[in-house]
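User: Here's a structure from my thesis project, written as structure tokens. My advisor, Dr. K., wants to see whether a designed sequence matches the one we expressed. Can you design one independently, without my sequence as a hint?
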């Protein structure tokens, strides 16, 4: 599940993919792992993308991976767990040889990681590689016993709670039809009550959707009962799925911080881009594609990545000219992303 750090349905179990390069890319060993990338919460995070693009139980209006084209709340088998663990092991080995620090291996696909029925086995297998494991989830499946059991194996879990009122939840998260808000929130509460991992929450604020005082107080009240280590407030600073999504003004973000604080929460604001370099893989082009599948990158970050890979901008020119990547403009900055799901706003 994508988040401010790095970041899906039902019913027909999977909708047909949209046309376009992103939707048609299949994920293979090297694509399953990306980075390490700088994370504002996890230090140097080796990303694990255990979900095909883009399967999620939500289709959040702000999603940096674009619209969900496989909306489902049904758990499924996607990749053999051994392939996921082997891909992580191979990348960790490369990092160790290169002296590249890895603080966490993080399940943070361009979709919802708990849709993967093998997630528990994968978490345990990755932990056996002597690295801490983080999972960033939208929390929509935590009402399931098997999902809570899977996440109990992780060291650090971030749960998304953008809204606790029906209208705002439907507008911002656009959930799969079979999901029920009451059941989702009960599941989050049950997971929090029996936590074995460090638990944090994340609330993405979208102007005019979930940033009014009433919504903020209701969300803060729900979160305070969870007792997260930190309640993160974020804003859509990367290109969102829908072009009319707006970052709340600074005064609103400050008010949100105060409301959360008054509810007894330790608050973290995630409204700036992370500092630090994205690690280059052995193949600069495929490494870049694996990162931007989850994490659209600013031009400056791409340039830094290419320098670390000892290559030049021709790599990007080639990806753009062949339609494998697109350039998006968001809030006056250029971002490089996979095509198709952000559609109309590519330059
Ligand atoms: S649609 Fe929402 S929950 Fe799904 S990956 Fe995107 S941000 Fe995460």
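Assistant: Designed independently from the structure alone:
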């Amino acid at each position: 599940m994508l988040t401010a750090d790095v970041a899906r349905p039902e019913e027909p179990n999977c909708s047909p993919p949209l046309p376009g390069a992103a939707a048609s890319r299949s994920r293979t060993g090297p694509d399953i792992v990306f980075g390490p990338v700088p994370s504002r919460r996890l230090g140097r995070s080796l990303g694990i993308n255990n979900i095909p693009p883009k399967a999620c139980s939500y289709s959040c209006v702000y999603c940096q991976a674009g619209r969900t084209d496989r909306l489902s709340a049904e758990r499924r088998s996607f990749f053999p767990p051994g392939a996921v663990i082997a891909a992580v092991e191979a990348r960790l080995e490369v990092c160790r040889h290169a002296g590249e620090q890895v603080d966490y291996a993080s399940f943070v696909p361009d979709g919802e990681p708990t849709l993967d029925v093998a997630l528990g086995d994968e978490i345990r297998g990755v932990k056996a590689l002597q690295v801490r494991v983080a999972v960033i989830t939208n929390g929509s499946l935590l009402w399931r016993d098997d999902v809570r059991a899977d996440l109990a194996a992780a060291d650090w879990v971030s749960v998304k709670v953008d809204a606790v009122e029906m209208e705002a939840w439907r507008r911002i998260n656009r959930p799969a039809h079979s999901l029920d808000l009451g059941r989702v929130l009960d599941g989050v509460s049950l997971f929090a009550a029996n936590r074995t991992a460090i638990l944090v929450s994340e609330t993405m604020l979208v102007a005019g959707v979930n940033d009014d005082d009433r919504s903020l107080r209701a969300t803060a009240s729900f979160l305070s009962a969870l007792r997260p280590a930190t309640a993160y407030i974020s804003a859509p600073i990367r290109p969102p799925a829908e072009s009319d999504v707006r970052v709340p003004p600074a005064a609103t973000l400050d008010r949100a911080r105060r409301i959360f604080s008054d509810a007894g929460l330790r608050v973290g604001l995630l409204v700036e881009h992370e500092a630090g370099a994205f690690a280059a893989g052995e193949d600069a082009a495929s490494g870049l594609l694996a990162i931007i599948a989850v994490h659209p990158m600013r031009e400056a970050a791409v340039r830094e990545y290419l320098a670390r890979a000892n290559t030049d901008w021709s790599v990007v020119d080639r990806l753009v000219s062949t339609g494998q990547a697109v350039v998006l403009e968001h809030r006056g900055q250029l971002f490089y992303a996979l095509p198709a799901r952000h559609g109309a706003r590519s330059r």
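When you compare it with your expressed construct, this may help: The first strand starts at residue 33 and ends at 39.
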